[in-house]
Amino acid sequence: MTDEQKDKQPDPAAGEFLRIEKVSKRFGDVEAVSAIDLTIAEGEFLTLLGPSGCGKSTLLRMIGGFERPSEGRVRLRGLDLTPAPPERRPFNMVFQSYALFPHMSVAENVGYGPRIAGTEAGEVERSVAELLDLVHLGEYADRSVGELSGGQQQRVALARALVNEPEVLLLDEPLGALDLQLRKRLQDELRSIQRRLGTTFIYVTHDQEEALTLSHRVAVMEAGRVVQISDPRDLYERPATKFVAEFVGDTNMVECQVKGGSGGRVEVKFGDRGPFTLSHHGSESLDVGEALAVLRPQHLELAEPGTCPFVGEVTQSLFVGTHVRLEVRLDDGAVLRVNADEEIVGLDGTRIGVRIKPGHGTVVAGSPNDRPSPIEG
What we know:
single chain; alpha+beta; six-stranded mixed beta sheet; five-stranded antiparallel beta sheet
């Protein structure tokens, strides 16, 4: 695979690679995963994103063969892997707990898989050296894994999972035990390694920033279902549901009245102000009536009160480096968060208008009190 091919966006429609067909998993009366359909491209970095208990780790374990689906199939290039145990699948898994052998050196841990598979010793040494260089641990080959930091141990676990050249690498919250700065550094390394090797990665996390940073596509899960799957920018800018809008990124959810619309454009009013045209990306059209406008703080701006959908008083302003975060209490009691230029100061107590920047703002079905019930798994 050339460097140019590795940098291209993988296309799930280009030919079947990994297919998850109507996969469900029940634990007693609880359905942890419900009829999920996914097609994953060869060389893709796909992230399963969702809160604790949404079923993402259960789905990953079914892909890896550690759990058997109650219904559905897992196919690789058309071959049904559903009955196959983990060791019979061309996959490897990286866990949050590292699962390294404490009595072995770094090199021995990485080379364990090919050694027990009967690979010739010289080939094992070559592969181990290459992988340790890839994860920047070449000089640590002879050290005990107990002498390494958490981040270094996670890199050893990654090298060990890659040394057998799996067709798919499964990663279950592998950075969850690390501190924030180390997580960010390893995110950069993971992304670089995946692009360089071209291995298909399926990654589980509850961290939306991590998902957006790493992935070609993100599948957002809620209560055992995939509710939206898209590339990171599209997911952030065009949420299809209230859950996705709230879970992915900082947002204001504002009640509005839908007055009509077509072709993905919706006419709405905010109280007695409007109509204003926003976008809608849900799978079903919105009925006339109550809905929610999704307004990111950076997609709002200050303006004269007479021309704006929102008018209120600045109750708080916080300097956060690149901008000032304003909280504006509207006349109906709702609070909007607005990102303003960093030069803006002294607005606390001021009555201002807030408008939506052209081309921004989406509408989703629902009400502010909607909350799904969590599902374990």
